[in-house]
Every structure is written in C-alpha cells, then in structure tokens.
Amino acid sequence: MTPTRVSIAAAGVAVLALLVIGLVQLHGSSSAPARPLRLSLAQMRAELAGSPGPLAALHSLAGLHGQPVVVNKWASWCVPCHSELGAFQRVSLALGQRVAFIGIDSGESRRGDGVSYLRSYPLSYPSYEDQSGQTGRAITDSSFTPVTVFYDRRGGQYIHQGPYPSEAKLEQDVKRYALGA
Length: 181
Hints:
By secondary structure, this protein is an alpha/beta fold. The chain is built from 7 helices and 5 strands, in the order αααβαβαβαββα. The protein has a 5-stranded mixed β-sheet with strand order 3-2-1-4-5, with helices on both faces. The longest helix is centred in the first third of the chain and has 26 residues, at about 5-30.
C-alpha cells in the first residue's frame, strides 16, 4: 500500500470512529426517557385535559354529549358517496342548527384526496380524514362506504348502510333517528 492510501484509510477510520463515539454519546446523554412512537387515545386525552373551552371542543367531541349527531362515512373515490353529497349539503343546512353533522373521509388511497375533493364539493360541517379506515370502521361498525350513523340525545344509535337516494329520505331519517320526531 502506498503512503497516500494508508493516509486515506487512516482518515476514514478516524472519521468512522468519531461518528461512532458521537452516536454513543448522543444516545447515552438523553436525560428524558424515550417516548413511544404511537400514543393511545387515553394518553392523548390525558395530555390535553384542561385545555381552554374552544380548544377542548377541537380535542374531543364530548361537548356534543346530549346533542343529536349524524356521522357520515364517505370517500372521494366512492361513487355512491358522490351521489348522496348534495343531499347531505342541503339537509345539513336545513337541520344544522338542531343536529351536529360530522364527516369521516375514510380509506383514501392517498393522504389529502378527500381535502382536494371537498374543495370542489364543500360541506357546511367538519369532515375528518381517516386514511387507515380504522376510525370509520369503529364508528360505523362497517368497512363499507358510505355509511351514516345517527345518534339521538340519549346516545341511541341507528346505522344506515349505503347511499341515501334522496334529500327527502335523509331528512326523514335525521328527524326520526337523531331528533326522535
């Protein structure tokens, strides 16, 4: 080996040694315990407990306790969801002062597809992204889309599988299952 190659090899070994020493020191110097990569719902609620009113409303839907709620699970790729969108737009405007409407954009293949879709077809109520589909399945007890869940003031639940064929039918079900009329 030539002196130049020996020097390059020695420099490489020195740089590698410095990197290893630095990484070992960095790992050993952490005074805080490692935080889990995923948090449970209980851990998140505990961390956010005591938030001011407007922020607490964003962190939890508990503020809707005792209120009628309609949850519609949909997706931008779902053709039947497109067919019922107009009914949800109009009924949420007609009854939105008496019933909380919430959307769940569930099972999108790419993050943000639902947000892009709602730019063209806006809703008067919030719709939350659920790319994995786990939240939508838990709430609607179904992996299919669309699904609408009605909650009355006492927490009673009615699940409607499939799209709504008309504004009149959706309004009838909101009044019957959410408002108890």
